[in-house]
Structure formats: C-alpha cells, structure tokens
Specification:
The chain is an all-alpha fold. The protein has helices at 3-10, 14-22, 41-55, 60-71, 78-112, 124-136, and strands spanning 30-31, 37-38. The protein folds into two domains: 1-76, Multidrug-efflux Transporter Regulator, Chain: A, Domain 2 (Orthogonal Bundle), CATH 1.10.1660.10; 81-137.
Length: 137
C-alpha cells in the first residue's frame, strides 16, 4: 500500500508518517517502479502501535524503546515496558498537580474580579497580572 492508504488505515497523516519514517520508527518495505514508498501489513501494525502509544502520552523516544521491545520480545523483559509506563505515570501525576495549581490561581483571579461593566482601570485580574510582571522585573 502507498503512504496515502497507510495514512487512511492507520489514522495518521501522511506528514506524520513521513516524519516517523525520518525518525526510523517506521520503514517502507519497498518502492514501486515509480519510486513510491510501499508499506505492508506489518508497517500498518507499527503505525497503529505508534499512534496508540502517542495518544496515551508517550514521547517518540519512549515509543522507540517500545518498538525495540516489540521487535525482539524474547530479548527483553516485561519490566522494561513497565518502567516506561510507571515513569509516565509519575510525569502525568506531576502535570496534574501543576494544572491544579494553575486552576486554583485562575479561580482566585476570577473570584476577585467583579466582572461588571465598570472601567477596567481597576480590574483586579489586570492588576494582579501586572503585579506579577513587576515582581519578576
């Protein structure tokens, strides 16, 4: 199948597939007489594997490790994949904590603002953001 069909079947864009190919995550299995890249069912499986891995937040570097494990399962242990997943859990939990702090700060800003039709000359949100900028200077 050509790259357009691979894109359709995998749910990835042609641009993304070409990028993954440049990153050595995906390989064309052959070239047509017209020099088009050709892909087989294994490449489709790999593209779908990459898409699912990216959808749940794994980086391309982590995906590359998963692909190396997938390519030679007998040479690897399950703990390698589990370690990647556990590290990703820690990263996501940290991001959630940071986002909760941002959400709390936004609520404080919003709650302090009257939200009325008065002039913004005394808007508490603008004032608070200006103070933060002045404190950084």
């Amino acid at each position: 199948m050509k790259i357009g069909e691979l894109a359709k079947e995998s749910g990835l864009s042609v641009h993304t597939l070409r990028y993954y190919e440049k990153q050595d995550l995906l390989l064309a299995t052959a070239r047509s007489e017209s020099n088009y890249r050709l892909y087989d069912q294994q490449a489709l499986g790999t593209a779908r594997f990459i898409r699912r891995s990216r959808e749940i937040g794994f980086s391309l570097e982590e995906v590359a490790v998963f692909l190396s494990i997938r390519a030679d399962k007998p040479a690897h242990v399950c703990a390698e994949a589990k370690t990647l997943a556990e590290n990703k859990i820690v990263d996501v939990e940290q991001k959630i904590s940071e986002l909760k702090q941002v959400l709390s700060a936004l609520h404080k800003l919003s709650d302090a603002c009257c939200g009325g039709n008065e002039s913004a000359e005394h808007c508490s949100i603008i004032d608070a953001l200006e103070q933060s900028d002045q404190e950084a200077s």
